[in-house]
Write a structure and sequence with these properties.
Order of helices and strands: EHHEHEHEHHHE
CATH class: Alpha Beta
Distance between the termini: 6 Å
Number of helices: 7
Number of strands: 5
Structural class: alpha/beta
Strand order of the largest sheet: 3-2-4-1-5
Amino acid sequence: MKTKIIYFVHGTTTDNTQKLCSGWKEAMLNDLGKEQAKNLGKTIKEKNIKFDVIFTSDLKRAVESSNIAFEGYNKITDKRLRECNYGILDGKHKSLVVYEEHIQKQFEGGESLKDVERRVRDFVEDIKKNYRGKTIGIVAHRAPQLALEVIVNGYSWEDAIKNDWRKSGNWQPGWEYIIED
């Protein structure tokens, strides 16, 4: 049986516009981010996409995005969907956060991408057990999405990072992942 995940990233934050990486630091959506979330909700309605449940990271920027975009849906926050903890680099310039250097090695005072993968893998196992055959929406961050590329699509971390849409600018309103059991 197939379980479908459609993954959405939170809207633009004040940190994003200042080229800062938030990590576990709370960052608020700016006006553009709120408009992006509102437009995402309209797109979902226009495409008549239905979800059985929406999961969201517990960080405010993801929660707020999901509340705007998915009004009326059952939403469950899950800290396993948090962004990577960049440790002492949380809130610092994004050029300092180099994913390629932290696949195995933890950010000082934080975690590695493999740590994020373990969190997301645990989340996916729960989805397999409890939401088999359902359509799941997720609103979260960069590292958990790349972890899904590794877990579901079988990419290496190096390939997931290399092909990250954030490098090419090829944003889209949702990425689909199919979990088969």
